[in-house]
Amino acid sequence: MMLPAAPAPQTAPKTAPPAGRPAGKAPAKSPAQKALDKLGLRRDIDLALHLPLRYEDETRIVRLIDARDGEVVQIEGEVTHSEILIRSRRQLLVTVDDGSDTCLLRFLNFYPSHQKTLSVGARVRVRGELRGGFLGREMMHPHFKLAGGELPGALTPVYPTSAGLPQVYLRKAVLSGLARADLSETIPAPLLSKNMPQRLSTLREALQFLHHPTPDAALQTLEDRSHPAWQRLKVEELLAQQLSQLQARRVRAAMRAPALRGSAVRGSQGSLQMKLLERLPFQLTAAQLRVGAEIKADLQKDIPMHRLLQGDVGSGKTVVAALAAARCIDAGWQCALMAPTEILAEQHFRKLLSWLEPLGIKTAWLTGSQKTKERREMLALIESGEAGLVIGTHAVIQDKVVFKNLALAIIDEQHRFGVAQRLALRSKMTDGGEEPHLLMMTATPIPRTLAMSYYADLDVSTLDELPPGRTAIVTKVVSDARRDEVIARIQAQIAEGRQIYWVCPLIEESESIDLVNATQTHQALSEALPDVLVGLLHSRMPPAEKKAVMSLFVDGVMAVLVSTTVIEVGVDVPNASLMVIEHAERFGLSQLHQLRGRVGRGAAASACVLLYSTGDAPRLGEVARARLKAMVETNDGFEIARRDLEIRGPGEFLGARQSGAPLLRFADLQTDAALLAWAREVAPVMLDQHAELAERHVLRWLGGKAEFLKA
Ligand code: ADP
Ligand code: MG
Q1: Using CA atoms, how far apart are residues 346 and 558, in angstroms rounded to an integer?
Q2: What is the pTM of this model?
Q3: Which CATH class is domain 473-634?
Q4: Consecutive sets of 10 residues in the chain, 711 residues long: mean pLDDT of each?
Q5: Contact at 8 Å (CB) between 262 and 269?
Q6: Nearest protein Cα to ligand 1, atom 5
Q7: Domain ranges of the chain
């Protein structure tokens, strides 16, 4: 195992086991503790860094006459009236008079204790949102208590929480974590002030302030996180992220990988790649040649490659992967290619088999749905080293799969895999002390700001050119009401011998949403197009059936393929020239772009029709409209990614699972670009000159999560 063990928690729990319980056996955790764990709040420092979402102001009592409707206020007054009203349902109505005006408190759910505290004559302190009601001003379900007692000196923090974790419990836990945590500085003062426009407070001051801001604090700057205390936290967070990326890069640079140079098997240098190039029915594009050279240079080194190959759908990533595989196998090592779906893995298998088998390369095939006997044969081929290339789905990373000498792992559509899966593939190398080279491929390009921040430990190659002879795809947005016209268009395409994809949203979508699902659409299209074969493909079908349907479409026997998004990634049928996406308003932007990439792969002019339906709403929502508009306006995957980022924001764009990088909680890559620049500059200095502080900083912020960054 080449991965360093997860770091130990910064502060080990010191609680002694309670008397009467055998030592060494941890006391059972309460539901609230479990909820804390779930939020990742295990160490004191985690609690201290769990910052409020917003604040409530309980420091002041407002006179009713001075308060506006819609404001959340705290008032104090005397109960002048209390009654239980039975209308459609029982409710408690209480009138409070604060001397300037009166306010009605309305409770739809209440206990006898409510009535008791709020009895006529009592002086009470009440907090809630003021509304103008039919009977004058009122508050619905306000917080209340008997008047008296001191007003708190600080704003009351409201923390992000989850079900089963009451705010009061969380608040106490956070405050005691804050009191116990080690908050000593990890960033040397000269570095902290380097190119920093404002003087930042210490971490301790910043945290103390954010957990208990004084009432005079400008709530606005706290809530929009522009307050200097927030700046300090963002700086810390960004630095931790940059440090961990840089550490990962250095750890990797210190690791060893097989240098894949020349031919071990067949004497003459690079013969397999040359033979493959000669056999290809096309010339490589300039971009493919450039990227191929970048990968070749990496593979020749004895440092593990960690490269992302990004290229728009149809840019020809597969052949680049095949060339890398050929180089690896030529040098006498094994290569694994993992794809996220069975359909895609199967397609790669067919294509690479046709390219590589004539060169004498044996290829093994692994999927989850394989028969035991076949699987056993494959496993034997892989273990003996007879199979130079292994292609498959997640099945490739199962424990039973043992490679003889894996040197190159290729992951297609890498964003579909989780970090753990990427790590698992890399750990498939059995030779001690070495790591395989890793090539990840994606059609969802990473925008520059994200690349700088989240993927600092990644070399990026870009295919910025499509193979020649492609015609641009024309995209149209069409209302569902005009389905008939779309069907007429399909008939015209069929008459020209073309094939059509018709994509529907997922079949397992909740029944409450009235989606026209793939099955119904399939039936309707079959009836409308009686002379041709209309197929259906969805994720619930058994793999063998999927395979059969897909082959009919690939071979051109089937004219129309109705499918769910199982065809989203990688499927390559150049004769398909029209894609219809039903309920396009429900798909994400990058998904729409991926789907559209299934057409426009041959020489024929291609089109994509985005059918939308507004359901009961008078028109499409703003976000859906922005997505469809982007699709019509551009075919460029980079521009699509940029707009997607704009529409969704980086958090969602990445998704924790995809990136593996813990998402930034406090900093925002757009608004805090200057702080990111600072962190990028300071991180290498910290690592070189203050290694111990750097280590503490990363541990404090990322704890055990730092490991994930290395995937
Ligand atoms: P993607 O980058 O989306 O994975 P593929 O590798 O599937 O793209 O390539 C798309 C299609 O273009 C395939 O049919 C492939 O054979 C073809 N292709 C790849 N490179 C070239 C090229 N240089 N010239 C012509 N066709 C090419
Ligand atoms: Mg592909």
Answers
A1: 19
A2: 0.69
A3: alpha beta
A4: 35 39 61 83 92 86 90 93 88 94 92 92 94 86 90 85 84 95 94 86 93 80 84 93 85 88 60 90 95 96 92 90 95 93 85 92 92 94 96 91 94 75 77 84 75 73 86 90 93 94 70 59 92 88 85 93 75 89 87 87 87 81 89 88 74 46 70 88 95 93 59 42
A5: yes
A6: 316
A7: 1-16+31-59+152-177, 74-146, 267-463, 473-634
Q: What is the CA radius of gyration of the chain?
A: 31
Residues 402, 366: Cα–Cα separation, whole Å: 12
**CATH code for the structural domain at 74-146:** 2.40.50.140
- What is the CA(318)–ligand 1 centre distance, in A? 7
Domains 267-463 and 473-634 share a fold: yes
601 lines ligand 1 (CB under 6 A): yes
Helix, strand, coil content of the chain in percent (nearest 5):
40, 20, 40
Cβ of 318 below 6 Å from ligand 1: yes
Ligand 1: which atom is nearest the Cα of residue 317? 2
Cβ of residue 444 lying under 6 Å from some atom of ligand 1:
no
* Angle of CA points 580, 584, 586, to nearest 5°: 150
Q: For residues 352 and 392, is the Cβ–Cβ distance under 8 A?
A: no
Q: Which CATH architecture has domain 267-463?
A: 3-Layer(aba) Sandwich (3.40)
